[in-house]
Design brief:
Elements lengths: L10 E3 L8 H10 L4 E8 H6 L2 H5 L8 E6 L3 H14 L3 E6 L4 H5 L10 H14 L3 E10 L5 H12 L5 E9 L6 H4 L7 H10 L4 E5 L5 H7 L5 E4 L1 H5 L7 H6 L8 H19 L11 H4 L12 H8 L2 H5 L5 H7 L7
Parallel strand pairs: 1-2, 1-8, 2-3, 3-4, 4-5, 5-6, 6-7, 7-8
Helix pairs in contact: 1-13, 4-6, 6-7, 15-17
């Protein structure tokens, strides 16, 4: 059930392929109650011709949670946005930032930045189909287009179609010659482009994304934009989020300790194994499908390596026993308790 009080997108965790599935989001929700969470990108084809529950099922505790779609056909996106709304998502986000060749072959992702009018048509079709927010995540340019005017005109065109929220990954996307990983590291970050967008479009919600690792960095950018989206740092060092509720949402509830986070995940794992079945091979749910997202919980602490080793032990994982988390925690005592 969707909560009555949906909080702002002041802080969010980026959609990350193969990472931000429902188990990862459930884990992150134990650390922060209010941080916005995003799904992995789901293509329109996967929803219109595939297993909808597999792609859209999520846990009520994940709210606020957004569905990111990949596609470029307005009618298909409208149908998928409607599915997202029916399944209870709080937002639908259009991916205009992914540079992978596989995504380009589908004529969507970052290559859509060269077709702002088409993106506007997609946004309008989705907005006409749903009552929830429709947002766009994009880069600041593609290939050798490095002029601010390019991203300014893109945002202006799409905003005219009714999009009020833009998530700006402050790097160019290089469509040929760089892997997705290299596209996250090699093109220089130009945060000033996102800052300028907020100045030029003060009525829009501008959220900045790209390379943030500390709350001090987040604080500095919140002086210029409406929100900050963190990516891989939330995955590799998830306990960074423990201060977010008090710092950015004025929630003085005492956050869980690392040990409490682990204990909170055990009944969830039991419920998921019961629902989907245990599996060593073939069908069912593997314990590693959940525990792999938790490897960074002890990042920076003594014995963090031993913690990771236990949660990655194939023989222990094959037993399908959620108490494996307690075995890993025991290697951290009394530090994480």
């Amino acid at each position: 059930m969707k909560p009555d009080n949906i909080f702002s997108r002041r802080i969010s965790v980026a959609p990350m392929m193969d990472w931000t599935d429902r188990h990862c989001r459930m884990f992150h929700r134990q650390i922060s109650r209010h941080t916005w969470l995003y799904t992995e990108m789901v293509t329109t084809g996967a929803l219109l011709h595939g297993d909808v529950p597999r792609h859209l099922d999520f846990n009520d505790e994940e709210h606020p949670v957004a569905l990111q779609l990949g596609g470029s056909e307005p009618l298909d996106l409208a149908k998928c946005a409607k599915l997202g709304e029916q399944w209870g998502y709080d937002e639908v986000n259009l991916n205009c930032g992914c540079p992978s060749e596989r995504v380009q072959k589908g004529a969507f992702g970052a290559c859509l930045m060269s077709e702002a009018t088409l993106v506007a048509d997609c946004v309008k079709a989705m907005r006409d189909a749903v009552q929830i927010d429709v947002t766009v995540k994009h880069r600041i340019g593609i290939d050798d287009i490095t002029s601010y005017d390019f991203v300014r005109d893109f945002v202006g065109t799409v905003a005219d179609a009714g999009c009020n929220t833009f998530i700006v990954h402050a790097r160019n996307a290089i469509l040929k010659g760089l892997s997705p990983k290299e596209n996250r590291e090699i093109p220089p970050l130009r945060y000033e482009f996102a800052h300028q967008l907020k100045k030029d479009f003060p009525a829009l919600e501008i959220i900045i994304n790209g390379g943030f690792k500390t709350v001090e960095e987040i604080d500095a950018h919140l002086l210029h934009v409406d929100g900050v989206m963190i990516g891989r740092e939330a995955y590799h060092n998830p306990f960074l989020m423990t201060s977010f509720d008090a710092r950015y949402y004025n929630d003085t509830t005492v956050p869980k300790t690392r040990a409490e986070v682990l204990h909170a995940m055990i009944p969830y794992i039991h419920s998921q194994l019961e629902k989907h079945g245990k599996s060593e091979k073939g069908g069912g749910l593997k314990l590693n499908s959940i525990t792999r997202h938790m490897l960074g919980l002890m990042a920076g602490l003594p014995n963090a390596r031993a913690f990771r080793q236990i949660l990655s032990d194939s023989k222990k994982l094959a037993l399908g026993d959620p108490d494996l988390l307690l075995q890993a925690l025991a290697r951290m005592q009394p530090i994480a308790a």
